[in-house]
Amino acid sequence: VAGISTGVTEDLGRRFPSIRPKLLVLPPPGRSSLDVQRLAGVPPNHPWFQEHPPPRIVTCVATIVSGKSQETLIEALPHIRARAGDVRLVLVGRIDDARYREQLEREAERLGVKDRVSLVGYAPNPLSFMARGIPPRPH
Questions:
Q1: pLDDT per residue over 21-80, tens digit each?
Q2: Contact, 15 vs 9, CB < 8 A?
Q3: Are 123 and 129 in contact, with CB atoms under 8 Å apart?
Q4: Cα R_g (the chain), whole angstroms
Q5: What is the phi/psi pair of residue 52, to 5°?
Q6: Pseudo-torsion of CA 42, 133, 50, 95, nearest 10°?
Q7: What is the DSSP string of 79-138?
Q8: pTM (predicted TM-score)
Q9: Distant-in-sequence, close-in-space partners of 100: CB < 8 Å, separation ≥ 6
Q10: Alpha-carbon distance 110 to 56, whole Å?
């Protein structure tokens, strides 16, 4: 019999003493907090994150498919840049639809932000990108 925490298995053992020898605590389904900190500390292999001073970068981590609506981020980028200056967009994720990728690239070109949008593709450590998104400057 498995529980998601020691507290759950102890409660089960109190309620049903006969199952105590069969109780097991399941390991956490995700990474440990130390793992997350370590992975977030690794600099991404992307030139924008090496610039000094670093630009403000919006990062989206999701499979590149039309259902995720990454085109909305590209459409918003010129408006954001008009108000906030040099803001760039990094799209990190497996590209499952080549036509959609081409659509995103055409839209970025049409809006004049092609050089400020980067489709990185699959990254084994997306936390490195996410950890370096720079928050907006205060008004």
A1: 999 888 776 677 788 888 889 999 999 999 988 889 999 999 999 999 999 999 999 999
A2: no
A3: yes
A4: 22
A5: -130, 120
A6: 80
A7: HHHHHHSSEEEEEES-B--HHHHHHHHHHHHHTT-GGGEEEEE--S-HHHHHTTPPPPPP
A8: 0.75
A9: 64, 65, 66
A10: 22
Phi, psi of 25 (to 5 degrees): -95, 125
Instruction: Report d(CA 111, CA 113) in Å as an integer.
Output: 6
Q: Report the amino acid identity of residue 45.
A: N
Q: Which residues contact 136 (CB under 8 A, 6 or more apart)?
A: 56, 84
- Grouping H, G, I as helix, E, B as strand and the rest as coil, residue 43 is coil
Residue type, 94: R
* CA atoms within 13 Å, Cβ hemisphere of 33: 0
Is residue 117 within 8 Å of residue 109, measured between CB atoms?
no
Locate 29 and state its tokens: 């389904």
Sign of CA dihedral 28, 30, 31, 37: negative
The first and second tokens of residue 37, run together, are 């900190």
